[in-house]
Amino acid sequence: MKQEYNKAIGQINTEKIGNELRTAYDKINWDNINLQLGYALAEIKIDSLRTVYNIALSSLSGLQKELEKIDQPGIPDTDITIESIDVKKKQLQGAINKLKAVKTKKIVEL
User: Fold this and answer.
1) Do 110 and 49 touch, CB atoms closer than 8 A?
2) What would the DSSP string read from start to end of 82-109?
3) Own/partner long-range contacts of 88-95 (Cβ < 8 Å, ≥24 apart)
4) pLDDT digits 0-9 by tens, 44-93
5) d(Cα 8, Cα 40) in Å, to the nearest integer?
6) Quick one: pLDDT at residue 105?
7) What secondary structure letter does DSSP report for 81?
8) What is the reported pTM?
């Protein structure tokens, strides 16, 4: 078994395999790969921001509902009012819409 293994190993042309690997490595379009990685990282950041903004928007909506439920114009001893919550919600929704517009569209190459 050991002799067969050594014989098989001896028949492998490591020089040829090494040359093929070097040739394949040289043919890689690194600029394109780096560009695609940059796009992927940007999409990850955008998705992360959208998630955080959506959570904040949900929290503000919950707070607004609670204030309306107990018929309070705001949280006492703070600057937080239903109107200020509305303003913040509109700002967050605007930011979410901008992120949706910025997100890169998938391009199908034929």
Assistant:
1) no
2) HHHHHHHHHHHHHHHHHHHHHSPPP---
3) 88/60, 89/57, 89/60, 89/61, 89/64, 92/53, 92/56, 92/57, 92/60, 93/57, 95/49, 95/53
4) 999 999 999 999 999 999 999 999 999 988 888 888 999 999 999 999 99
5) 43
6) 62
7) B
8) 0.66
Cα 95 to Cα 87: distance, rounded to the nearest angstrom: 12
Amino acid at 24: A
**Residue 20 reports pLDDT greater than 80:** yes
**Rounded CA separation 88/10 (Å):** 72
Half-sphere exposure of 79 (CA within 13 A, CB side): 3
Q: Inform me whether the pLDDT recorded for 13 exceeds 60.
A: yes
| Structure tokens, 47 | 């998705």
Give the pair of three-digit tokens for residue 13: 């042309």
Beta-bridge partner residues of 81: 74
Q: Please tell me the predicted confidence (pLDDT) of residue 61.
A: 94
Q: Which long-range contacts (CB under 8 A, 24 or more apart) does 35-39 make?
A: 39/104
